[in-house]
Specification:
The chain is of the alpha+beta class. Helices cover about 20% and strands about 25% of the residues. The radius of gyration is 27 Å and the shape is globular. It starts with 14 loop residues before the first strand and ends with a strand.
């Protein structure tokens, strides 16, 4: 393609459609994986029909990130082409190089406003949001940092919604027929989400724009709530909604075991207190701590996450551990930890926490999944909550039913407390109607039969299948997603957009493990490895070990990979566009400076 000249869109000069670009998803080899992407676009001649969701001959590879009614057509400008050709020292660009559907002369990001409307050919469009950058534009450009560069240089491009379907063709004039309220440009809105600052007045302006897409609206609402919450909050709640108060301390603190309690045939509780008269930081009900257990003198310490199961307070923490058939850590706690022993304990962390509102509460658990929700029940009882509270628990039998009498006592203090216990395989001595309420498993039909209020906040913890089935059942029953909360004891689900599915594997050492370098502990996965020079980031190390991860941009922009840093320090290359919350890191662009423990 010839060097593109900057021409229209300013001082009354008409903007123009230079090229219509389309492409279908295809598999692209990348780092030993296959990426499903439609970022490769080809310029087409003649008129093309534009429809509500895309252009004839075009389809998005990742509809969750780049498709749908609000993101039907991606626009990029010839002036930006000129900029990047100079910035990157490139002369090999062709139309569609940046994955855009419309290459245009004019319509710069610092002049086009969210809500502006344009007539192109016989179709009518409305500007809805800036481009959401992801790693695939870096693959297309052969420039791994491209996602960050688009944001840092303020040249993202933008999406259009199709208000009236019609035909478009290269050479069509672009006629502005409507002006967006608040006159907030694409560049301003892009910076408001991704760059540090997020001033309240600007957030309120953006939220007054009806055309702003729901995804960006939700991000700005989260930032506004963070702005208004007061207290100590860090990070970007618009990119990581789980951002909350930072952990009370970094690393580990020695706590003494003062009680060891048998809760059921398989669950044992440890009550942990600080030394002398020092105080702990009260956890939020539902949070967990990480234990560093030195099971064998010459072996790496084991890292394990355990939910706090007692009333949040400053005097002590209680954890409750189920003995697993081949669990080294659970066997050590059950068999070898004694009263008076000292354990290394992290500060409470996690965002599976009780919401402070007046809505009904439904606490759903199975087996040892009762641990975080019983902390919530303690908190509600301590405040003599008048809201409606439902305790629904499933166990195999009475022998394997932890906290049975404890929960009954707590529920008796609540004026609107309800309970339902299901045993899937009751023992002969278990009394129906006394020890438990029904045979079978706890599922959505049980909730429907009990007439559990659908406007409640639902907190679910237990085996993955239990949580998945109940979450799906609640959604099908009409419970809104924002009211369904789940907690996993092990690694969370991966989010690797566009990567072809492969059989899952248990976390393991990398193919060529290093014998030196900082020690990296993946606490949820129970894996400890050495950092090695073969990896550019902690994300790459996690991927080499099949530790489940979440990511999108891989350049420190989107915060999808934001991960709790339990202990240790890291260095960034490149630096994130907007720093993560204190106590968390962006694993896509950092390396360990010394030994680290990650909440992965």
């Amino acid at each position: 393609m010839k060097q593109l000249a900057v021409a229209g869109g300013k001082d009354g000069v008409m903007a123009r459609l230079l090229s219509v670009n389309v492409g279908l998803p295809r598999g692209i080899p990348w780092q030993g994986k296959t990426v499903d992407t439609a970022v490769w676009k080809t310029s087409v001649q003649g008129p093309r029909q534009v429809r509500r969701l895309n252009i004839d001959g075009d389809r998005q590879g990742d509809a969750a990130g780049h498709g749908g009614e609000q993101r039907a057509v991606l626009v990029y400008q010839s002036e930006a082409y000129n900029f990047w050709q100079s910035e990157l020292g490139r002369k090999d660009f062709t139309y569609g190089q940046f994955g855009e559907n419309f290459t245009v002369d004019g319509l710069p990001d610092d002049e086009v406003c969210i809500g502006d409307r344009y007539r192109i050919g016989s179709a009518l469009f409305e500007v809805t949001q800036p481009r959401v950058t992801c790693y695939r534009v870096g693959i297309r450009m052969n420039e791994p940092q491209m996602a960050a560069l688009l944001v840092a240089r303020g040249r993202p491009g933008f999406y259009l919604r199709v208000l009236e379907e019609g035909q478009v063709e290269a050479g069509d004039e672009i006629v502005q027929v409507g002006i967006g309220p608040e006159h907030m440009t694409v560049s301003e809105v892009n910076a408001l989400l991704y760059l540090p600052g997020h001033p309240r007045g600007q957030l309120e302006r953006a939220l007054r724009i009806p055309a702003l897409s729901p995804g960006w609206r939700g991000s700005f609402q989260a930032l506004l709530s963070q702005n208004e919450s007061g207290g100590e909050t860090t990070g970007n709640a618009g990119l990581d909604p789980a951002s909350g108060p930072p952990a009370a301390w970094a690393g580990f603190r020695p706590l003494r075991v003062v009680h060891k309690i048998r809760e059921s045939s398989s669950v044992t509780s440890l009550v942990l207190e600080p030394f002398e008269e020092s105080r702990l930081t009260a956890a939020r009900p539902g949070q967990f701590v990480v234990l560093r257990l030195r099971v064998m003198p010459d072996a790496p310490a084991l890292m394990r996450s355990y939910s706090l199961s007692s009333e949040p307070g400053e005097r002590h923490y209680r954890i409750s551990v189920k003995r697993e058939p081949h669990g080294l850590a659970s066997a050590y706690i059950n068999d070898r930890v004694e009263i008076g022993d000292v354990l290394d304990v992290s500060a409470p962390r996690g965002n599976f926490v009780l919401r402070p509102n007046d809505a009904p509460v439904v606490l759903l658990s199975a087996g040892v999944g009762a641990t975080p929700v019983i902390a919530m029940l303690h908190a509600l009882a301590a405040k003599a909550a008048t809201r409606e509270v439902w305790w629904l628990h499933g166990a195999r039998c009475g022998r394997e039913h932890p906290f049975a009498q404890e929960t009954r006592n707590l529920l008796e203090t609540l004026v609107h407390g309800h309970s339902h216990i299901s045993y899937s395989s009751p023992d002969r001595e278990d009394r129906l109607g006394v020890d438990y309420d029904a045979d079978g498993h706890l599922d959505i039909e049980v909730l429907r039969g009990l007439h559990v209020p659908r406007n409640a906040d639902f907190y679910i913890c237990g085996p993955s299948a239990f949580m998945g089935d109940l979450s799906a059942g609640l959604a099908a029953w009409g419970v809104v997603a924002d009211r369904i909360h789940t907690e996993l004891f092990g690694p969370g689900p991966s989010n690797t957009p566009g990567i072809a599915a492969t059989p899952s594997r248990q976390p393991h050492l990398p193919a060529e493990p290093s014998s030196a370098g900082p020690v990296v502990s993946f606490a949820r996965s129970g894996l400890t490895v050495h950092w090695g020079p073969a990896f550019q980031s902690l994300l790459e190390l996690a991927e080499a070990c099949d530790v489940p991860t979440r990511w999108s941009c891989r350049t420190g922009v989107c915060h999808s990979c934001e991960t709790g840093l339990v202990a240790g320090t890291v260095t960034y290359q490149p630096e994130p566009i907007d720093p993560p919350a204190r106590g968390t890191i962006l694993i896509c662009c950092c390396q360990p400076k010394a030994d680290v423990v990650l909440d992965l």
